[in-house]
Amino acid sequence: MMPTAGPELRDIHVPHVSMWWPLAPGWWLLIALLSAAVVVGVILLRRRAAWKRRVDATLVDLHDATARYAQDGDLAAFASVASQLLRRVARTRDSRSVVLRDLAWRDALAAMAPAQDIDRLLAIDDAIYRPDATLDVIPTARDVEAWVRAALRRRPAHVTA
Questions:
Q1: Which of 76, 88, 127, 158 could form a disulfide with 133 if both were Cys (CB 3.0 to 4.6 A apart)?
Q2: How far is CA 126 from CA 7, 79, 102, 104, 134, in A?
Q3: C-alpha–C-alpha distance, residues 148 and 142, integer Å
Q4: pLDDT higher at 161 or 11
């Protein structure tokens, strides 16, 4: 018989550990970050949907006026609705814009939606009061809609009194 050189070793038995529990701290951090990203994504999507509903509700009168113009050809009525819409939206961006005329009105329109062409928008006020005024209604309606969308997208200026 041979002498033993050391203690008798037994086989190692690893206890059964679930793959899902307990998670390492890195996994918990990843789960928290993904949850936060999902919450932020849902909030942003809801805000965007609310903004789209608001803009669409704002533009209902313009679409109705464009359809009425196609039926009756009343340019003054279309121009009146378009002008009121521009003034109403401008008032939400800058309360002083209600009383602006001519160059000041042009500057206000340009400042509220800098990327938009405002030439047709300026012709709207003339079409209300001049019976011989000409106005391309469909392109003007598109320009008004684009301006409204751009103006409502931007943050209002902080007015100091």
A1: 127
A2: 106, 9, 11, 16, 9
A3: 10
A4: 11
pLDDT tens-place string over residues 57-83: 999 999 999 999 999 999 999 999 999
Looking at 73-116, list the stretches that DSSP marks H as alpha helix, in order from N- to C-terminal side.
75-93, 102-112
Distance CA 28, CA 30 (A): 5
Closest CA relative to residue 148, chosen from 94, 85, 67: 85
Tokens of 99: 């009383």
Could you give the CA distance from residue 116 to residue 130 in angstroms, rounded to a whole number? Answer: 25
Q: Which contiguous run of DSSP H or E holds residue 13?
A: none
| CA gap 155, 161 in Å, rounded | 18
Distance, CA of 128 to CA of 45 (rounded, Å): 39
Q: Per DSSP, which regions of the chain are E strands?
A: none
Place of tokens 């008798």: 8
d(CA 58, CA 64): 11
